[in-house]
Fold D-alanyl-D-alanine carboxypeptidase (Penicillin-binding protein 5/6).
Amino acid sequence: MPTLRHFVYRCAAVAAAVSLCSAGALWQEPPPGASAVGGERLGQPGVQLAPSAGAPPLPVNLTGQSWLVADAGSGEVLAANNAHLRLPPASTLKMLFADTVLPRLDKNTVHRVTDAELAGMGHGSSMVGIKENLDYRVDDLWRGVFLSSGNDAVRVLAHMNGGIAQTVAQMQARAQALGALDTKVVTPDGYDTDGQLSSAYDLTLFARSGLRNPDFRVYCATRDAQFPGLVDKTTGQRGSFGIANTDRLLGKYQGLIGVKNGYTTNAGATFTGAAERGGRTLLVTVMRPAGYQQVYDETAALLDWGFAAAGKVTPVGRLADLPPTPAGPTEPPQAVPVEQQDQAAPPAPAAGGVGWPGWLAAGLCAAAVVGAVHWVRRRPTR
């Protein structure tokens, strides 16, 4: 006859198996050939290149797991490596956030930040230094997004846009409209979260679309700025502090326009850069190279190669055609109190936090305990 111990062990084993299988499925990276957006060759694994006579060789010692070089004007992809490999995007996802939300908010709007708007940020998030109960112009908040990669600025803007869940849904819809079918948006700031993925192809689409917006171009090209600080209790005057763009190529690489970098322990380094020379604008995205500095070194090397190779290689694919530039609403969205917002998109879990597979396993374990107690109560007395 089964004993209580056997019953609990069996339930715990089922819970553990579900947890392991679910976690594995959630983080499994699809093969690069899973998507053929932009052309069949871009859906193939490995380096894709079709050089003509006189074409320069690709840079040596490239370590990025995925990268892409494209002409922003024509949309031609000059070369790529695992273009559709889905990887965590880190803060480069903020390009999609900006492309989606910038047209929806008047940059001259002044907003008073609440405690609730800053709650729920993931552990270790990059922040510009926003404080509750102080007023900020939307224009300043965008500088906090682009220069400091501030997740606090993203969250405030997302709440002004109607809430985290609404903003995530809008970002996902925008990705679909751009042809960025590798992208799954879970948080608006790119913080490491189960299931949040993008690709070098998609990040390049976000940059190309965003750069059509003059404000986007200005923000991503800004090297440093003053950000509103605290109010001096004695004088009543509000101070400010300096912030600097974390893009290490800005001001150092000839013709660089922007656009956005990112880094987390899980994603590694990610970067999309745009540069202009001789009337030609190139876009390069590099994801997960061997180290943090390599993302800049390899982007610069691929930009150099792209300018030298233009006209000497046959394109291996194309960027999806750009949809119309999103128009701002006739009436700007109203900032909805946090307690009234749709909570369908929960705050990002802290690093090492428990995702839904963990909670599912915990729930099954709890069910096992409850079932065991119920089993004991119903056993016939001897």
